[in-house]
From TrEMBL:
<dbReference type="InterPro" id="IPR032630">
    <property type="entry name" value="P_typ_ATPase_c"/>
</dbReference>
<dbReference type="InterPro" id="IPR044492">
    <property type="entry name" value="P_typ_ATPase_HD_dom"/>
</dbReference>
<feature type="binding site">
    <location>
        <position position="800"/>
    </location>
    <ligand>
        <name>Mg(2+)</name>
    </ligand>
</feature>
<feature type="binding site">
    <location>
        <position position="774"/>
    </location>
    <ligand>
        <name>ATP</name>
    </ligand>
</feature>
<feature type="binding site">
    <location>
        <position position="803"/>
    </location>
    <ligand>
        <name>ATP</name>
    </ligand>
</feature>
<feature type="binding site">
    <location>
        <position position="525"/>
    </location>
    <ligand>
        <name>ATP</name>
    </ligand>
</feature>
<dbReference type="GO" id="GO:0001669">
    <property type="term" value="C:acrosomal vesicle"/>
</dbReference>
<keyword id="KW-1278">Translocase</keyword>
<feature type="transmembrane region" description="Helical">
    <location>
        <begin position="1008"/>
        <end position="1025"/>
    </location>
</feature>
<dbReference type="GO" id="GO:0005886">
    <property type="term" value="C:plasma membrane"/>
</dbReference>
<dbReference type="InterPro" id="IPR006539">
    <property type="entry name" value="P-type_ATPase_IV"/>
</dbReference>
<protein>
    <recommendedName>
        <fullName>Phospholipid-transporting ATPase</fullName>
        <ecNumber>7.6.2.1</ecNumber>
    </recommendedName>
</protein>
<feature type="binding site">
    <location>
        <position position="780"/>
    </location>
    <ligand>
        <name>ATP</name>
    </ligand>
</feature>
<keyword id="KW-0813">Transport</keyword>
<keyword id="KW-1133">Transmembrane helix</keyword>
<feature type="transmembrane region" description="Helical">
    <location>
        <begin position="264"/>
        <end position="290"/>
    </location>
</feature>
<feature type="binding site">
    <location>
        <position position="582"/>
    </location>
    <ligand>
        <name>ATP</name>
    </ligand>
</feature>
C-alpha cells in the first residue's frame, strides 16, 4: 500500500515481492566502474573546469590558436587528477566504514535453528536474536525477552544522546513464545505499519496473529543503533532495514555545504568572464580598425590568410584568439589551490594536541575539508544541552536537612585538596565512586539524628530505580534518569541502601540491618504535578508517605507548623540555585490507617473512571499529599563539561551568540544557562515566551521588544521599514541592556506557523542568550534555518545525539561531540571532538587563522594573475592586435603551476597574523571574519586596480628600457625575446616581493618556499634556454642563448629593479598608512596591548570570580526530576520485576518471611467486578468490549484485587497493547 507497510514473519518470499531494501547501508558515492565518468562529470560541472575544457578544444583550431594546447592541457590534467585522487581517498574511507558495519554478525532464525549471518543479509520479516550489550541490527518488533512480562532495556545514546535506559515491552501473546525456537519458527504474524520515516518516537501498526489483532506502538519497537542492556536475550521480527531504519532516515542524504567564500568566488569568476569578454571585444575592435586602415594596404609584406576575407572576419578570429591568450585571468589552479589549502588546515585541526582528549583517546577531527575558512566567520552557535554542555552525570553535592546545610560550596572546589574526603569504609555496600567532602553529615547519620535518617530513608524509598546484584554486595542501579540514580546512590553511601524491589516490597539495608518495606502505592510523577510520592508500611507497622518534587509545589503542601523551617530551607535553595545546582524538596507524612483505607477506595474509583480520569486522579492525590512535614532539600550538580562557562564567556567576547536548543524541560535548561554563563545574574531581564496562541505569543514578543528597544515597535523604526523589502534581511539591533529569552517548543511552533517568525527573530537576536526547550529534532533544524534565512551570518550547530543530526545538517557548520553519548552526531558532522571547550580553539585559533590565510591567498592569487595576463593587453596595442604573446610558451605553462604555486601555498598554510595566545586572549580579533572584512568585492576591486597598475609598469618600464638600447659591444638588444625575458623576470621578482610583504609569520619553510621558488625560476630559465635543448628540439624550445646573453647586461637588471620598486611602493605605503588612518582590531591590539599580551604569555590569568547575586524574583527551581509519566504504575503492576539469580531469590524469600511476622494491611475494597482494565497496558482508560477473565493488579496501588479482570477487545481502537 502507498500509506502502509505490510510484512509477515518468517516469509521471505512475500516480503521480497514488495521490494524492501536489504539491511546493507551505503554512504559511499562511487564504485570501480562508475568512478571515472561520475567524477569527471562532477568536476566539469564547475564553471572554471568546463571553461578550460572548451579552451583546449579552441586551441586545437589552428586559425585562432597562437598557443600550444599543452599550455592548457597540462594544468587542467593536474587539477583534475589531484581532485580525483582526493575524492577517491574520501570515498574509500566511506567504503571501509560501510564494509565494517555491514559485515557485523547477527543470530538469524533459519529453518528452526539459529545461524550466524552478516548484518547486510538480514531482510524484512526475519526473526533475529540479540544478546546483552549487543547493538540492535535493524528496527525490530520485540517478540519476547529473558525478562518477565517481555520487558527489554535499551540504551538510546546513539539516537538521542541520553545514557539512561529505556524500557520496551513485548505483547504478552508474543512473549509466550519465549526462546522456544520451534514456536518462533512457526510464528507467522502479519504486520501492517507506518511507511519508513524519521520520527524516533512515533510508530503505529497492527499485528494480526491467530485471527486476533493487536495494536503496536513505539514502546514495542527496538531501533537500529540502540544497545540492549540488562537483558540476557531477546527475539524480534525485522520491520525496517538498512536505509529504511529510523537511524538512517534521520541521517538523511549528505548535504553539500558551500561556504560564503565559495559563493563569492563564483560571483567573482563571472565578473572576470565579463571583464575578459570586454577586453577581447576592445582588442577585436582595435584589430578590425587596424586591419582596415593599415593591414589591408600592407598585405604585400603581411599577406592575409586564405580564410580571411575581410577585416571583420579577421577581428572575429582575433577575438577568439585573445580569449585563449587571456584565459589565465580565470585561474585554472584557483579551485585546486583552495582545496589544498583547506586540506592542509584540516590537518592542523587533526594534529592539534590541545584538542586531543586523553581519557577517551579521541583527537579532534576535521571530517570535511570544504568549510575551514568559515570557522573564522561564525556569528551564531546553536548547542544541544545534555551531553554537549553537560556530561549527563549527576552528583549529589549539597543538601539541607532540618534547616542545616551539608556539603561543600562550589566556590571552595578549587581548594578541594585541602578538604578531607568522607570515608565510607564503614558501609560495605557503599559505592566507591561516590565523593562527598563534609564529615558532619556522616557524624549526624552515625549519631542517629532522626531527621537525617528520615531524609535519607525518603531518598532510598521514593523513586523508581531498579537494582541489580549479580555479585553479592555489588549493586548496580538502573535509573530512569541520572538524577534519580544520584539521589539513591547518595542515600546508599550514607547507610540507607536500596537493595531490591518487587511489585509490592522494597528491601533496604539501613545502617547494616536488612529491612523490608511494604510498597502500598506510588503516586506517579507528571509534568503538571512536578512531584512523586510513595506510601509504604514500615517493619514497625507504621504508614508513611514520602514525597519529593519542585519546591514551588511542595511548599504549598506543607503543614503550617513548618513555616519557619520552610523559610530557612528556601534561603538554602536560593543559595543552591545561584550555584547552578538542581534542587528538590523532600517531605513526609504519617498516615492514619482508617484515612488511608478510605483514600485507597477513592483512588480505585478514580482510576477506573471512564470520564475525566486524569483530573479525578489528581484530586485524589491532592487529598493525601497535604499537611506534609518538611525534611529538607537536595542539591544535585548536573556536571558541566570542563571549562564550559569560560568558553562561552570567551565566545561572547568574540560577539558570537549562543542559543541552546534542547528537548529538556524549561527549569533544567534555564538552570544550565546560568551555570554556563549564557545567562548572568546581573542581566536586565529574562523574557519567558509560553503562550499557546497567536495573540498571546505576539503580545509577549512585542512586550519584550518594547522593553529592550522601545523605538523598535514604532513603524518609523528603520528595521520595520526595511523588513517588507525583498530579500528580507533582519538587521542587527542594539538593545538597551542585556537580556535573555526562553521559549518552549509549543510556543515556537505556534510562532513559526502563525507568521510570527520575523517578530521572534528580532527579539531573539537582540538577546544575549536564547534558550529553546522542549524542542523536537525538526524544530531544532527550523530554528537554525530561520536564522540562516533572514540573517546574513554563518551558523554553527553542535550536538551529540541522533536527535541533533537535523540541526547539525541545517547549519553552515556542524560539530559533533564524540564520546559517551553515541556516534550519530559525529558521523553526520563536519568537525568532531570530545569536549565543548575545544570549540573556542576551533573557532578563535584554527578558524581565524584559516580565514585570514584564505583571504590573503585570494587577494594575492587574483593580483598575480591579473598582472601576468594584462601585460598581453598592453602589448596588443603595439603588435597590431595580432594575438602575439609576450611570454615564452613554457613560462605561460609553468607560471601558475610551478613558479608561483609554492610561495602562495606556503603563505596559506603557515602564516599567522598573531599567535594562538593572542587569539585566545583577545577574542575581539575574531570580529573581522564575522563581517567578512578581509576579502570581499571591494577587496577584489582593489586587486584588479593594483593588477592593472603593476601590469602597466611591468610592460612599459622594460619597453622603454630596451627601446633603442645597445649592448656593451654595440649590438642592438631591443628584440622581442630579450623584451619577453625582462618582462617575465621582472614579473617573478615583483610577485615574490609582494608575497614577502604579505607574510607576517616567517619560518624556515616560508623562506625556502618564497626565495626558493625565485631561485628555481632562474634555474629553469637557464635550462629551458640552454643550447642543448634548443638545438635538440628547435620547434619547442626557441629562445636559444637569450638568458645567457640578456642577463649579463646591467641596464636589464636596472630595469628589473626599477619595475620591482615601482610595483612594491603602493603596497609598502598601504602597510604603513592603513593602521594609522583605517585601523582594524588586530592593529589596535598590536599597538595598545602588546605589554599585556606578553604578560599574559608569561603569567596566565586565572578566570575571574564572578559574584553571584540573589534574585528572589526570579529564583530558579530546576527540580531534579526527568521521569516519564506512568513509570511508577509499571513497577506496581509487577512488570518491572526482573528474573533474578538464585542468590537474589534466596534474599527475597528471606525478606518475605520477615514480612509474615508483621501485620499485613488489607484494602477496604477487597473485591470488585470491574470491566475494562486491559492486560497489556498500564495507566490507560478502559474501553468496552468482550471480557475474558484473568486476575490483574491495579496500577498505582500495590496488593492483589480478586475479581479485577482484563479484557481482550475485538475491533479497532483502544490503547496501546490492546488486542484490537
Amino acid at each position: 500500500s502507498e500509506n502502509e507497510r505490510l510484512l509477515q514473519a518468517n516469509n521471505r518470499e512475500l516480503t521480497s515481492s514488495f521490494g524492501y531494501p536489504d539491511n546493507a547501508i551505503k554512504t559511499s558515492k562511487y564504485n570501480a566502474l562508475n568512478f571515472l565518468p561520475m567524477n569527471l562529470f562532477e568536476q566539469f560541472r564547475k564553471l572554471a573546469n568546463a571553461y578550460f575544457l572548451v579552451l583546449v578544444f579552441l586551441q586545437m583550431i589552428p586559425q585562432i590558436s597562437s598557443l600550444a594546447s599543452y599550455t592548457t592541457v597540462i594544468p587542467l590534467m593536474v587539477v583534475l587528477s589531484i581532485t580525483a585522487v582526493k575524492d577517491a581517498i574520501d570515498d574509500l574511507k566511506r567504503h571501509q566504514s560501510d564494509h565494517q558495519v555491514n559485515n557485523r554478525s547477527v543470530l538469524l532464525l533459519v529453518d528452526g535453528r539459529m545461524e550466524e549471518d552478516k548484518w547486510m543479509n538480514v531482510q524484512v520479516g526475519d526473526i533475529i536474536k540479540l544478546k546483552n550489550n549487543e547493538c540492535v541490527t535493524a528496527d525490530i518488533l520485540l517478540l519476547s525477552s529473558s525478562e518477565s512480562h517481555g520487558l527489554a532495556y535499551v540504551e538510546t545514546a546513539e539516537l538521542d544522546g541520553e545514557t539512561n535506559l529505556k524500557v520496551k515491552q513485548a505483547l504478552s501473546v508474543t512473549n509466550d513464545l519465549e526462546d522456544n525456537l520451534e514456536l518462533l519458527s512457526t510464528f507467522d504474524g502479519e504486520i501492517k505499519c507506518d511507511l519508513p520515516n524519521n520520527k524516533l518516537d512515533r510508530f503505529t501498526g497492527i499485528l494480526t496473529y491467530k485471527g486476533q489483532k493487536y495494536l503496536l506502538d513505539h514502546d514495542k519497537l527496538l531501533l537500529r543503533g540502540c544497545i540492549l542492556r540488562n537483558t540476557d536475550w531477546c527475539y524480534g521480527v525485522v520491520v525496517y532495514t538498512g536505509p529504511d531504519t529510523k537511524l538512517m532516515q534521520n541521517s538523511g542524504k549528505a548535504i553539500f555545504k558551500r561556504t560564503q567564500m565559495d559563493q563569492l568566488l563564483n560571483v567573482l569568476v563571472l565578473w572576470i568572464f565579463l571583464l575578459l569578454a570586454i577586453m577581447c571585444f576592445i582588442i577585436a575592435v582595435g584589430h578590425g580598425i587596424w586591419q582596415s586602415k593599415i593591414g589591408y594596404y600592407f598585405q604585400i609584406f603581411l599577406p592575409w590568410e586564405n580564410y580571411v576575407s575581410s577585416s571583420v572576419v579577421s577581428a572575429t578570429l582575433i577575438y577568439w584568439s585573445y580569449i585563449i591568450i587571456l584565459n589565465t585571468m580565470v585561474p585554472i589552479s584557483l579551485y585546486i589551490s583552495v582545496e589544498i589549502i583547506r586540506l592542509g588546515n584540516s590537518f592542523y585541526i587533526n594534529w592539534d594536541r590541545k584538542m586531543f582528549y586523553a581519557p577517551k583517546n579521541t583527537p579532534a577531527q576535521a571530517r570535511t575539508t570544504t568549510l575551514n575558512e568559515e570557522l573564522g566567520q561564525v556569528k551564531y552557535v546553536f548547542s544541544d544541552k545534555t551531553g554537549t554542555l553537560t556530561q549527563n552525570i549527576m552528583t549529589f553535592n549539597r543538601c539541607s536537612i532540618n534547616g542545616k546545610v551539608y556539603g561543600m560550596h562550589n566556590c571552595h572546589k578549587r581548594l578541594i585538596k585541602k578538604y578531607k574526603k568522607v570515608d565510607f569504609s564503614y558501609n560495605k555496600l557503599a559505592n566507591p565512586n561516590f565523593l562527598f567532602y563534609d564529615n558532619t553529615l556522616v557524624e549526624a547519620v552515625k549519631s542517629g539524628d532522626k531527621w537525617v535518617h528520615l531524609f535519607f530513608l525518603s531518598l532510598s524509598l521514593c523513586h523508581t530505580v531498579m537494582s541489580e546484584e549479580k555479585v553479592e554486595g555489588e549493586l548496580v542501579y538502573q535509573a530512569q534518569s541520572p538524577d534519580e540514580g544520584a539521589l539513591v546512590t547518595a542515600a546508599r553511601n550514607f547507610g540507607f541502601v536500596f537493595r531490591a524491589r518487587t511489585s509490592d516490597t522494597i528491601t533496604m539495608v539501613e545502617m547494616g540491618e536488612t529491612k523490608v518495606y511494604q510498597l502500598l502505592a506510588i503516586l506517579d510523577f507528571s509534568n503538571v504535578r512536578k512531584r512523586m510520592s510513595v506510601i509504604v508500611r514500615t517493619p514497625e507497622d507504621q504508614l508513611l508517605l514520602f514525597c519529593k518534587g519542585a519546591d514551588t509545589i511542595i511548599c504549598e503542601l506543607l503543614h503550617s507548623s513548618c513555616k519557619d523551617l520552610t523559610n530557612v530551607t528556601m534561603e538554602h535553595l536560593d543559595d543552591f540555585a545561584t550555584e547552578g545546582l538542581r534542587t528538590l524538596m523532600v517531605a513526609y507524612r504519617e498516615l492514619d490507617v482508617t484515612f488511608f483505607q478510605a483514600w485507597r477506595h477513592k483512588h480505585s474509583v478514580a482510576y477506573l473512571s471512564l470520564e475525566d480520569r486524569e483530573n479525578k486522579l489528581s484530586i485524589v492525590y491532592e487529598e493525601i499529599e497535604k499537611d506534609l512535614m518538611l525534611l529538607g532539600a537536595t542539591a544535585i550538580e548536573d556536571k558541566l563539561q570542563d571549562a564550559v562557562p569560560e568558553t562561552i564567556i570567551t565566545l561572547s567576547k568574540a560577539k558570537i551568540k549562543i542559543w541552546v536548543l534542547t528537548g529538556d524541560k524549561q527549569e533544567t535548561a534555564v538552570n544550565i544557562a546560568y551555570s554556563c554563563s549564557i545567562f548572568e545574574e546581573d542581566m536586565d531581564g529574562v523574557f519567558m515566551v509560553q503562550g499557546n496562541n497567536y495573540e498571546t505569543i505576539c503580545q509577549e514578543l512585542r512586550t519584550a521588544r518594547a522593553k529592550m528597544k522601545p523605538e523598535s515597535v514604532l513603524e518609523s523604526d528603520p528595521t520595520n521599514i526595511c523588513l517588507p523589502m525583498k530579500p528580507k534581511i533582519v538587521p542587527d539591533e542594539v538593545p538597551k541592556g542585556r537580556y535573555g529569552l526562553v521559549i518552549n517548543g509549543y510556543s515556537l511552533a505556534c510562532a513559526l506557523e502563525e507568521n510570527l517568525e520575523l517578530e521572534l527573530l528580532q527579539v531573539a537576536c537582540m538577546c544575549k542568550g536564547v534558550i529553546c526547550c522542549r524542542m523536537t529534532p525538526l524544530q531544532k533544524a527550523q530554528v537554525v534555518q530561520l536564522v540562516k534565512r533572514y540573517k546574513k551570518v554563518v551558523t554553527l550547530a553542535i550536538g551529540d545525539g541522533a536527535n541533533d543530526v537535523s540541526m547539525i545538517k541545517a547549519a553552515h557548520i556542524g560539530v559533533g561531540i564524540s564520546g559517551l553519548e553515541g556516534m550519530q552526531a559525529m558521523l553526520n558532522s563536519d568537525f568532531s571532538f570530545s569536549q565543548f571547550h575545544y570549540l573556542q580553539r576551533l573557532l578563535l585559533v584554527h578558524g581565524r587563522w584559516t580565514y585570514n590565510r584564505m583571504c590573503k591567498f585570494l587577494s594575492f592569487f587574483f593580483y598575480k594573475n591579473f598582472v601576468f595576463t594584462l601585460v598581453h593587453f598592453w602589448y596588443a596595442f603595439y603588435n597590431g592586435f595580432s594575438a602575439q604573446t609576450v611570454y615564452d610558451s613554457w613560462f605561460i605553462a609553468c607560471y601558475n603551476l610551478i613558479y608561483t604555486s609554492l610561495p602562495v601555498l606556503g603563505l596559506s598554510l603557515f602564516d599567522q597574523d598573531v599567535n594562538e595566545t593572542w587569539s585566545l586572549c583577545f577574542p575581539e580579533l575574531y570580529e573581522a571574519g564575522q563581517h567578512n572584512l578581509s576579502f570581499n568585492k571591494k577587496k577584489f576591486m582593489d586587486c584588479v586596480l593594483h593588477g592593472i597598475y603593476s601590469s602597466f609598469v611591468l610592460f612599459f618600464v622594460p619597453m622603454w628600457t630596451i627601446c633603442s638600447s645597445e649592448c656593451s659591444d654595440g649590438k642592438d638588444i631591443s628584440d622581442f625575446q630579450t623584451f619577453s625575458l625582462i618582462v617575465q623576470t621582472s614579473l617573478m621578482c615583483v610577485v615574490t616581493m609582494q608575497i614577502a610583504l604579505k607574510t607576517t609569520y616567517w619560518t624556515v619553510m616560508s623562506h625556502l618556499l618564497i626565495w626558493g621558488s625565485l631561485g628555481f625560476y632562474f634555474c629553469m630559465l637557464f635550462l629551458l634556454y640552454s643550447d642543448g635543448l634548443c638545438l635538440m628540439f628547435p620547434n619547442i624550445f626557441q629562445f636559444l642563448g637569450v638568458a645567457r646573453n640578456s642577463l649579463s647586461e646591467t641596464q636589464l637588471w636596472l630595469s628589473v629593479v626599477l619595475s620591482t620598486v615601482l610595483c612594491v611602493i603602493p603596497t609598502v605605503g598601504y602597510i604603513f598608512i592603513k593602521p594609522l588612518l583605517f585601523p582594524v582590531s588586530v592593529d589596535k591590539v598590536g599597538a595598545r596591548q602588546l605589554p599585556r599580551i606578553r604578560h599574559c604569555m608569561k603569567y596566565p590569568v586565572p578566570p575571574p570570580k564572578r559574584a553571584r547575586l540573589k534574585r528572589p524574583s526570579f529564583r530558579r527551581s530546576a527540580y531534579a526530576f526527568s521521569h516519564q509519566q506512568g513509570f511508577g504504575a509499571i513497577i506496581t503492576s509487577g512488570k518491572m520485576t526482573k528474573l533474578r539469580s538464585k542468590k537474589k531469590d534466596k534474599l527475597l524469600r528471606k525478606s518475605h518471611l520477615m514480612l509474615v511476622s508483621h501485620h499485613r494491611f488489607q484494602a477496604s475494597s477487597q473485591t470488585s467486578n470491574v470491566e475494562g482494565v486491559e492486560r497489556d497496558s498500564v495507566g490507560l482508560p478502559p474501553a468496552r468490549g468482550r471480557v475474558s477473565s484473568c486476575p490483574a493488579r491495579l496500577p498505582g496501588l500495590s496488593g492483589s484485587f480478586q475479581g479485577v479482570t482484563c479484557e481482550a477487545l475485538v475491533g479497532r481502537g483502544g490503547s496501546r497493547g490492546e488486542r484490537a
